[in-house]
């Protein structure tokens, strides 16, 4: 059986370069520390230290062992720290970035529940485009962001959060488009209200139309979901939106979903974080809560 206490004494001795200093740090007698080192060397059948009047230094075998023990010990210390953070969850913060619509329809319900359970943890939210959110993430200004997937970046880790459906919606003037299917080519002849070209939802729409060989000139380019909804309700055009974000308007009859002959593929929204950086316990708890509870707010 592995005697972890022997490795603990070995670790401190290697770090201090002295058995007596290691014994002081470990609050044990020097003879006990020397015996622990001797027992470890005997069990491994090798000398781990060169002994000199000025202290000790690692042998080649000792250096090899220390490379592994150091990693293991630091992992143990990190685990203890994380457990301490969990126990203390009475402080700290969670830093998130997302678009305004994602904040409204995805984050808010979870923020409410998380705040109810952990009232002393501060939740900081920043809104921005996908590129803006990723920039904040790489600058270390947020713990994670929620954006459309896929994200092609080797330095980032993504976790799928929810599947959504893009669609075209219209007001009363164009209600007939919800009754009989139309083609993308036919739809392109109507006034279209879409997000600006730099936004990922617009880029998704561009790819969709191009995949069916359709070109279009939008009537309006607007960077706000609420305005896209408003323009459609005001009969100013056909808006391209996320169906899950306009369920209230569809249910109450102020918007109508356009029936298309072609299929619009579902897309994923996901949690994006830095691959090589440990995420704070509070932020991980928030993520776990979202994944466990589901993510789209239902409008009644």
Automatic annotation (TrEMBL):
Q: Which Gene3D superfamilies match?
A: 3.40.190.290, Winged helix-like DNA-binding domain superfamily/Winged helix DNA-binding domain
GO molecular-function annotation terms? DNA-binding transcription factor activity; transcription cis-regulatory region binding
Q: Where is the HTH lysR-type domain?
A: 2-59
Instruction: List UniProt keywords, sorted A-Z.
Output: DNA-binding, Transcription, Transcription regulation
Family to which the UniProt record says this protein belongs: Belongs to the LysR transcriptional regulatory family.
Q: What is this protein called?
A: LysR family transcriptional regulator
